[in-house]
Amino acid sequence: MSEFWLISAPGDKENLQALERMNNVTSKSNLSHNTKFAIPDFKVGTLDSLVGLSDELGKLDTFAESLIKKMAQSVVEVMEDSKGKVHENLLANGVDLPSFVTHFEWDMAKYPAKQPLMSVVDTLAKQLAQIETDLKSRTAAYSVLKANLENLEKKSTGNLFTRTLSDIVSKEDFVLDSEYLTTLLVIVPKSSYAQWQKTYESLSDMVVPRSTKLIAEDNEAGLFTVTLFRKVTEDFKVKAKENKFIVREFYYDEKEIKREREEMTRLLSDKKHQYGPLLRWLKVNFSEAFIAWIHIKALRVFVESVLRYGLPVNFQAVLLQPQKKSATKRLREVLNSVFRHLDEVAAASLLDASVEIPGLQLSNQDYFPYVYFHIDLSLLD
């Protein structure tokens, strides 16, 4: 599973024994794989400042998670032709995400633990805000390019009624620069080819005999040329429609056709040139954002543990990786049982949902007897 539970308990003898019991039970029952989660000794500051930081870190956690989801989606969209290799590009410090989480080490160079906590949080917030700004500008430019290219490609697909004809017709298919004659393009159902050949010369006066030619087909119809005098064009269109032959409006303009082809070539070239740099940027900055996110989780554990368990700072953080989805309920019961002494009232209500305690407002989603945070990497799939 790509899901982790990050918990902490006080570091006194009683709770270290509780952690050991938890490890034994979860290991024997194959409920989770547990590892210690190292968190530095930060400058605590005042408890009031920690309360403010708790709220700030909650918002930053949500923002960071949202950002890495957007970046993962951007990688999917950029790698449209290689979606099977997306996860090879969603790495943190060159390793897969579960490995990075389970072997997490605080980056002292980027986020010095000797700095005040607010400074560390501010550094993380500015870093993530800059990545988001760059993400918006880079992906917007690529999206516009991709949309323009898709619009041109759509014109080259579809049936003969809607698609562009510039890549089908050639100069030789038309009578050009004639004062009296013109060439029309007519869409004829495949079932009506024989009827067209028999009747097109008589649909109107002044149609040039034997002037029709099939130049393209799709699954339902064919595109024929026919040459006639300009002055009977409207009459011919009416008679053709009566026979279920549709004249496709088209004016052969060599310069416009050349411009369309050059535009397609340019867009394909631009997309190719932007693809590599954008994917490299996404890979590097996804890694940076993900690493920042896990550092935020570590900070939240520290702040909440100090607020919950008090001073001096003494707690043990543990990372649990549930082994299977079906076992998470049992794992939660084990944790609540092992650590119920941390908050007897809360633990009782969590272990027995039927118990109603007057005046106590608890949600299984946001309160436990121990400090708890969730890391769900499946959201990036």
Chart the SSEs and their pairings:
Blueprint: E1 3-10, H1 13-28, E2 32-36, H2 47-78, H3 86-89, E3 91-92, E4 95-96, H4 97-102, H5 117-155, E5 181-189, H6 193-199, E6 213-217, E7 221-229, H7 233-242, E8 246-248, H8 254-309, E9 315-322, H9 328-338, H10 344-351, E10 371-376
Antiparallel strand pairs: 1-9, 1-10, 2-9, 3-4, 5-7, 5-8, 6-7
Summarize this, please?
This protein is of the alpha+beta class.
Explain how this protein is built:
With 381 residues, this protein is α+β, with helices and mostly antiparallel strands. Helix content is 50%, strand content 15%. It has helices at 13-28, 47-78, 86-89, 97-102, 117-155, 193-199, 233-242, 254-309, 328-338, 344-351; strands at 3-10, 32-36, 91-92, 95-96, 181-189, 213-217, 221-229, 246-248, 315-322, 371-376. Strands 2-9-1-10 form a 4-stranded antiparallel sheet, sandwiched between helices. Strands 6-7-5-8 form a 4-stranded antiparallel sheet. The chain is elongated.
Strands in their spatial order, largest beta sheet: 2-9-1-10
Query: How many distinct helices?
Result: 10
- Largest sheet descriptor: 4 strands, antiparallel
Class inferred from helices and paired strands: alpha+beta
Strand count = 10
Low-confidence parts lasting 5 or more residues at pLDDT below 50? Answer: 353-365
Shape label: elongated
Overall mean pLDDT stands at 89
> Roughly how many Å apart are the termini?
12 Å
- The helix content is 40-55%
Strand content: 5-15%
Order of helices and strands: EHEHHEEHHEHEEHEHEHHE
Radius of gyration in whole Å, from Cα? Answer: 34 Å
